[in-house]
UniProtKB/TrEMBL annotation:
<dbReference type="InterPro" id="IPR052093">
    <property type="entry name" value="HR_Repair_Mediator"/>
</dbReference>
<dbReference type="InterPro" id="IPR013632">
    <property type="entry name" value="Rad51_C"/>
</dbReference>
<dbReference type="InterPro" id="IPR020588">
    <property type="entry name" value="RecA_ATP-bd"/>
</dbReference>
<dbReference type="GO" id="GO:0033063">
    <property type="term" value="C:Rad51B-Rad51C-Rad51D-XRCC2 complex"/>
</dbReference>
<feature type="domain" description="RecA family profile 1">
    <location>
        <begin position="27"/>
        <end position="204"/>
    </location>
</feature>
<dbReference type="Pfam" id="PF08423">
    <property type="entry name" value="Rad51"/>
</dbReference>
<protein>
    <recommendedName>
        <fullName>DNA repair protein RAD51 homolog 3</fullName>
    </recommendedName>
</protein>
<dbReference type="GO" id="GO:0005524">
    <property type="term" value="F:ATP binding"/>
</dbReference>
<keyword id="KW-0234">DNA repair</keyword>
<dbReference type="GO" id="GO:0033065">
    <property type="term" value="C:Rad51C-XRCC3 complex"/>
</dbReference>
<keyword id="KW-0227">DNA damage</keyword>
<dbReference type="InterPro" id="IPR027417">
    <property type="entry name" value="P-loop_NTPase"/>
</dbReference>
<keyword id="KW-0539">Nucleus</keyword>
<dbReference type="GO" id="GO:0007131">
    <property type="term" value="P:reciprocal meiotic recombination"/>
</dbReference>
<dbReference type="GO" id="GO:0008821">
    <property type="term" value="F:crossover junction DNA endonuclease activity"/>
</dbReference>
<dbReference type="GO" id="GO:0005657">
    <property type="term" value="C:replication fork"/>
</dbReference>
<dbReference type="GO" id="GO:0000707">
    <property type="term" value="P:meiotic DNA recombinase assembly"/>
</dbReference>
Length: 255
């Protein structure tokens, strides 16, 4: 007769109901994007414990939103924010601190009355930066994020700009896909253990489907099932929300 051993990890296996999950989602913390209509559709902004992808061609505003999120995550709790910090992982070697400083000064002015101590210089100090010029260093940085979060537990958002850039440098398609799966699994493990959001950028590419070429996000269709949210950026300044272009919906900025 077999004996079943119960550990402290599975004794309470069935204690969570669907109502508990729903309440947790409603009460989950968000990082405002600054795009009012997009925040409304996302229930307040980018969710913690999720992977959110920003996809679009170069110059459509993906990096700007990443920088803005690195600042918005620091909004004081007294003003309705998370009062956290950010980690910016740069694979394109295109990070400009002057752009971040400009956005920080704008945010400082916006919250001057509600949070006078919320200053641009402090915001810049709370954005940690790592340069990853190749896929090996990107993998090492994602794996070491666990240690970085232990040393800096106030980090609430980790940005990878861009996830596709270094992976597309690999000529071996099988190796590229295997590394992508390892990256996403490492990111998901971190989400299970820490209250943090992953925000990654991706580019559009042409792919032959049937006898026609279509513009689709890089990294493949299967990858789209591994992320939680996908925000599309267009050159005319519009944002769209949805996993695929066919099912995406236009988000008009109400500012």
């Amino acid at each position: 007769m077999e004996t079943t051993f119960l550990s402290s990890n599975n004794i309470n296996l069935f204690n969570k109901s669907c109502l508990d999950i729903l309440r947790g989602e409603i009460q989950s913390k968000k990082i405002a994007t600054g795009h009012k209509s997009l925040d409304r559709h996302l229930g307040g902004g980018i969710s913690l414990r999720q992977i959110t992808e920003l996809v679009g061609n170069s110059g459509t505003g993906k990096t700007k939103m990443c920088l803005q999120l690195c600042l918005n995550v620091q909004i004081p709790k007294s003003a309705g924010g998370l009062e956290g910090a950010a980690l910016f992982i740069d694979t394109r070697q295109d990070f400009h601190p002057d752009r971040l400083q400009e956005l920080a000064r704008d945010l400082e002015k916006e919250y001057k009355q509600r949070a006078p101590d919320f200053q641009a210089a402090k915001m810049l100090q709370n954005v940690h930066y790592v340069s990853c010029p190749n896929a090996v260093q990107l993998m090492a940085t994602v794996l070491s994020s666990y240690r970085h979060l232990i040393a800096h537990p106030n980090i609430k958002v980790i940005v990878i700009d861009s996830l596709a850039f270094s992976l597309r440098m690999l000529d071996d398609g099988a190796q590229r896909f295997e590394l992508l799966l390892e990256l996403v699994e490492s990111m998901r493990r971190l989400l299970r253990e820490h209250e943090v959001a992953w925000v990654v950028t991706n580019v559009l590419t042409h792919r032959c489907i049937g006898d026609q070429f279509h513009v689709v996000p890089a990294l493949g269709e299967m990858y789209s099932h591994l992320i939680n949210e996908r925000i599309w950026f267009s050159r005319n300044g519009h944002c769209f929300l949805g996993k695929s272009w066919k099912t995406s919906r236009l988000i008009k900025d109400s500012r």
